[in-house]
Amino acid sequence: MTILDRMRRAAARRGTQTGLRFEDRRFTLADVEGGSNAAARVLKAYGVGKGDRVVVCTATCLEGVLAHLGALKLGAISVPANPDYKDAELGWILEDAAPKVVVADAPRIERCRRLAASSVEVVLEIDRGERAALAAEGPRCHPFYQAVRKASVHPVDELVWDDDPAMIVYTSGTTGRAKGARLTHGNLAANIEGLLEAFAWTADDRLVLALPLFHVHGLCVGLHGALVSGCETRLLARFDAEEVRAVLEREQATLFLGVPTMYARLAALAGEETVELPSMRLFVSGSAPLPVPVAEAFERAYGHRVLERYGMTETLITLAQRADGPRTYGTVGTPVAGIETRVVAEDGRVLGPDEAGELQVRGTSVGPGYWNADEATAASRTDDGWFRTGDLATIDAAGEHRIVGRSREMILSGGMNVYPREVEDVLLAHEDVAEAAVYGVPDDDLGEAVAAAVVARAGASIDPDG
To answer: What are the angstrom distances between the C-alpha of 418 and each of 80, 215, 258, 309, 462?
Structure first.
C-alpha cells in the first residue's frame, strides 16, 4: 500500500474532518483528496506524466501542498525547492532535475522563469488574485490556483507502485554541488507507518506544524504523517515563538514537531514562567541534536520532556524514542519499524555496545540513491548494502543510540544544513579575502553557529563586525 493509498483511506474514513488549516482557510480531508486530484489533472494537462519531475518552489501554502500531492498521484516526481535559495542553488536544481513543469508562487515566479529559461516549457504560478504582468522572456506561464479550482476532483487513473520514484530532495555534502536524494513511494509509506507507531500518532491528534515544507522533516514527516493519520493540522507560514505558544494554548494542540532552535526560543520566551498546556501530548525534535540544556530548560517551562528522533534526507527517519518509552537526554532512541542499524569501525569491524564508530543503516525507508550521481550513490553504500550516514554513534546494551559526532564537516544550524565549502566560496569571492575556513561552534539558540577564520589579502584590512 503506497503513501497515496494510506492518505485515501484516511480521507474515506474521516473525510468531513478538518485536515489542514492555514491562515483563514480550512480544508477537510476530503477537500485535500479532491484538491490534489484536481492538481494532478492540471499538471497532466501540461504534459506531466509518470517519471517526469515537478519542481515546487513556494512559501508554505495550501496550493503548494496540492501541487506536491498532485505530482505524486501522476507517478511524477515531486522536487521541493527552498523558496529562499539563491540563484546558483535554485538554478542547479532546475538544471539537474530537468523538470517538465515548475510550480512557483508570485514572489518567485520571475526568478524561476529566468533560471529555467533553457530547460522548462511551463511555469505554473500560484496566485489567488490577479496575475501580474510578466516579462516576455522565459517559459510560458499559466495560473495554477484558478486551474485547480476548475478541474475535476475525481481520481486520476495512473497506477503508482511502492518502488516507483516519488521525490527528489536536494541535499549537499562538504564538497561539490547539491545531490538529489531519491525517495520512492514505498520509502515514504514505510517512514510514516514507523513514526505513527512510535509516536502513537492517531486521527485524534491536533498537530501544530511550523516547519517549512521544502525538506523531509516538514513535508515527509509532518504533512504526510498528518494526512495518513487523518488528524487535524494547523499549518503555520513560519515559526514565531509567540504565535506558536498562543496556538498551542488556544487550539488545544496535542502534537508539535520542531527543531532544537524552536525549543530554545520557546523556552526563552517562557523565562521563569511555568506554561500550562493540558491538552499537549507530545513534543518531538529532530533535524539536529537537541542540546541537553535546551531540553532541560524547555521541560522546566512547559512540563514536557521532548522526544528525539534521528534521520537523514537519504534515509528518512531511522531512529526514534517512543511515546511510551524512556526519553534519555542525549539519545535518539531505537530503530523504527523496518530499520536495522550497526556501528562500524574504520577498518570495517562491527562494534559492540558503547563503542563509537560510524552509524550505518538499512531498511524500508532508505532511498535507492542519488539522482544523476551513480558514483555518489556507490560511495554512500557499503559492499554489503548498508548506507553510510557519516555520523559517529554508540549503541548501548539496551539498543539506545547516541550520536557523538560527525565524520562529515556539515554544520547543523537552527535545524538547517550549512555546508562549510559553500560559505567559504562566498567569503573567498570578496576581494579582500585570501583564505577562509568555516566551522561550527556551539550555540544555545541555533545548536551550532557558523564561524569563520579569514586571512586578509596583502594590504587589506578586514573588520569582523563590518
So the answer is: 18, 14, 18, 20, 23
